[in-house]
Design brief:
It is a single chain. It contains twelve helices and 21 strands. The chain has 426 residues and is α/β, with parallel strands linked by helices. The radius of gyration is 22 Å and the shape is globular.
Length: 426
């Protein structure tokens, strides 16, 4: 299907609503979970003709997806080709499945995402994320680049030596990488006298960690990378449940949605749609998805949106970087903070390269936050770190010095697809 993002806003809304109505009918015919929901709330999808009608459908939660997992499957199991799980960032990983059309949809989404960034058929892209471990993203990048026809170097995660060897051998123009891993690559290059600043690489597609503030400027992590390495950084936002990525273009004005593949709502606590620029929870409905479509699924992610036309000529809605996760909101000494706020402070300090954050309930049910840093730091540095927290987020979490081994053990939890820097014990 052609990318309709440059057509008029009115046409985009019509295309999206048509796809939404098709998906509603599909769910009414094929989804055991939604059939029961429609019956329970006396909903006939043929009568859903406006957004107000759509709001009658109850929100689907992550707990629903976990508890009634197989009831979401809409195709015979013999049609399922690929099985994946979520990363487990917010708890136990959830099973998801894809058939052939879903894999084609995934490839289309990522092909368009790479085109947004500027990747062309003649380019070579090095994927530094895993293609195994039940991880959807690495496979999605591979399928999208294959559909685009670009060259692909599949190095997988970690191993800076392999990354630089592959860059020297295959001359990629682009990297797909977790931002913090880019810092590890830079550190390795400096230690081993690799002339990384003059490599052929011109840009990195950054996944898994925010690199921008709400005003689209680079945040502390993005700035740290940009100061050390003169490559263009592109932000993306995605999740396994959505099987869709939101990616920014060369103007870096927010992450473009693909309206024929996903329907988005940004809601406040009362369930109403927030105004442009106001933070709210992202609620999504997957479109053109066959195996496990989701309807009004609450992602738990807090962000903002913009509906102004982009300088690139696209008229699609754009999402901001992630502010935080609804379930991870912390009330610390009377101040509302998210783990990302704490991470931002730590990323802004060159000396701290490894850390983990823990949240728990203290006396009288009050939130407590403990930031664990390597025990190589002095008492004086801890005092400086406390001052940095007070200046940036107005409150100071507890700071503990522990061994690097302990930090790594806490970050790499069993069954999690990727390392966690925030552990919520509340």
């Amino acid at each position: 299907m052609l990318d309709q993002s440059r057509t008029s806003i009115q046409n985009i809304k019509q295309i999206q609503w048509l796809e939404l109505q098709k998906q509603l009918l599909y769910l009414q015919w094929n989804s055991k979970f939604y059939q029961q929901k429609f019956k329970e709330f006396d909903i006939d999808v043929n009568n859903i003709v406006t957004y107000e009608d759509l709001r009658r459908i109850p929100i689907t939660s992550k707990e629903d997806l976990q508890r009634f997992n197989e009831d979401f499957i809409c195709v015979p199991k013999t049609e399922i080709i690929d099985f994946v799980t979520t990363s487990g960032t917010l708890g136990k990983p959830v099973n998801l499945a894809l058939n052939e059309p879903d894999l084609e949809r995934l490839a289309l989404n990522e092909m368009r995402s790479f085109e947004l960034v500027g990747v062309k058929k003649e380019d070579v892209v090095q994927i530094t994320t895993t293609l195994d471990r039940r991880f959807m993203a690495g496979m999605a990048y591979f399928l999208g680049l294959r559909k685009l026809g670009a060259g692909i170097v599949r190095t997988g995660s970690g191993l800076p030596q392999l990354q630089w060897d592959s860059i020297e051998r295959f001359k990629p123009n682009y990297l797909v990488a977790v931002p913090s891993f880019l810092l590890k690559m830079i550190e390795y290059a400096i230690e081993h006298k690799i002339d990384y600043k003059n490599s052929i690489l011109k840009a990195a597609v950054c996944i898994g960690e925010p690199i921008r503030n709400l005003d689209n400027s680079l945040n502390a992590l993005g700035t740290k990378i940009a100061d050390l390495w003169n490559i263009e950084l592109f932000s993306t936002y995605a999740s396994t449940e959505m099987a869709t990525a939101f990616t920014e273009c060369k103007f870096h004005n927010g992450n473009h949605i693909q309206p024929d593949l996903i329907f988005t709502e940004i809601l406040n606590k009362a369930g109403g749609h927030v105004k442009e620029g106001e933070p709210g929870e992202l609620v999504i409905t997957t479109l053109q998805n066959q195996t496990m479509p989701l309807l009004r699924f609450a992602t738990g992610d807090i962000l903002t949106y913009s509906e102004k036309p982009c300088e690139c000529g696209r008229n699609t809605l754009r999402l901001s970087s992630l502010i935080g996760r609804k379930s991870q909101m912390i009330k610390l000494k009377g101040t509302t903070v998210y783990p990302q706020n704490i991470i931002e402070v730590l990323n802004g300090l060159d000396e701290i390269k490894n850390f983990v954050i823990e949240a728990k309930k203290g006396i009288a049910g009050v939130d407590e936050v403990i930031v664990k840093i390597p025990d190589t730091f002095s008492t004086d540095y801890v005092l400086l770190l406390k001052d940095a927290f007070k200046a940036k987020i107005l409150v100071t979490p507890k700071i503990e010095r522990v061994s690097e081994a302990k930090i790594n053990e806490l970050k790499n939890q069993k069954d999690a697809v990727k390392a966690k820097v925030f552990l919520d014990h509340r």
